[in-house]
């Protein structure tokens, strides 16, 4: 187990360095094919080396030109907003998804409830940008029908650890919840038809205990893998969800640093963010770290819970 974790940790470090360098190279003047350099610039490798010396020597990620704001301060604010959104959506998707999977798995005869098929079909065919757009359009339509005094029940955009969190979390967790529910129901239904379940029933075990103590233990590893895949999906959809609901997290920040300068006034952002190499590099490294840490956590839990994986 220790050797496995060390190998994954080394892979994580290499991947973070590669993502950081790729982000810096993309945003560096002349590195972005959509924004060519305006005049002579220093070569990429020496400039990146100087930046790394500044990071490890001075312990600072730098500042923005024409602004007193630091890169570290902007990243900390955005990372806090994104992690809060991800944490709420991940926890809810796990509990709701596994709960629906438990409800859909029939014991006698073993199988999956009929309502699971249209539920998963609808959920897997509903991308986050479409569901988010529907909710926003529905809120606007509700306000129009209600007249000038109508109030929308939930905020459509903005930041806050209150009702502002409801719609972004709902959109972010919808598809992962469906995936977790589908996998849990299929695996649990398969386990409930096996001989050891029949033997347990003959010994007097109730259905709830069989599901939680026996069947779930044999399905937990693929369920954890599904949760890890769902977490990666949420990280990818974070960009769209934060942009739609104006949530000031890393996803929206990534959009702001990549859109052309002429669009900044429309989004209420300062033009100093656009294509800032240290900022783009840091965002790329953070997204890579979130992807890889999700995989590392799922793999570590799988090995700790399944003795067959520990011996391999």
Structure description:
With about 300 residues, the protein is mainly alpha-helical. It has a single domain, classed as MetI-like fold, CATH 1.10.3720.10. Helix content is about 70%, strand content about 0%. The protein contains 12 helices and 2 strands; from the N terminus they run αααββααααααααα. It has helices at about 1-25, 45-60, 70-105, 115-125, 130-145, 165-190, 195-200, 205-245, 250-260, 265, 275-305, 305-310, and strands at about 105, 110. It has a two-stranded antiparallel ribbon with strand order 1-2. A hairpin with a 2-residue loop joins strand 1 and strand 2 (about 110). Helix 1 runs antiparallel to helix 11 (about 275-305), helix 3 (about 70-105) packs antiparallel against helix 8 (about 205-245) and helix 5 packs across helix 8. The longest helix is centred in the last third of the chain and has 38 residues, at about 205-245. The protein is flat and about 75 Å long. The model has no long low-confidence stretch (mean pLDDT about 85).
Provide key terms for this protein.
312 residues; MetI-like fold; two-stranded antiparallel sheet; flat; mainly alpha; 12 helices
Element layout with pairings:
Elements: H1 2-27, H2 44-58, H3 71-104, E1 105-107, E2 110-112, H4 116-124, H5 128-146, H6 166-192, H7 195-202, H8 207-244, H9 250-258, H10 264-267, H11 277-305, H12 307-311
Antiparallel strand pairs: 1-2
Helix pairs in contact: 1-11, 3-6, 3-8, 4-6, 5-6, 5-8, 6-8, 8-9, 8-11
CATH third-tier fold name:
MetI-like fold
What is the count of DSSP helices, taking H or I runs of 4+ residues? Answer: 12
Q: Rounded to an integer, what's the Rg over CA atoms?
A: 24 Å
Distance between the termini: 10 Å
What integer is the average pLDDT? 83
Number of β-strand runs: 2
How many domains in all? 1
**Reported CATH architecture:** Orthogonal Bundle
Helix content: over 70%
Beta-strand portion reads: under 5%
Report the uncertain regions: none
Q: Would you tell me the structural class of the helices and strands?
A: mainly alpha
Assign the CATH superfamily: MetI-like
Profile the largest sheet: 2 strands, antiparallel
* Spatial arrangement of strands, main beta sheet: 1-2
CATH classification, class level: Mainly Alpha
Order of helices and strands: HHHEEHHHHHHHHH
Query: Globular, elongated, flat, extended or rod-shaped: what is the shape?
Result: flat
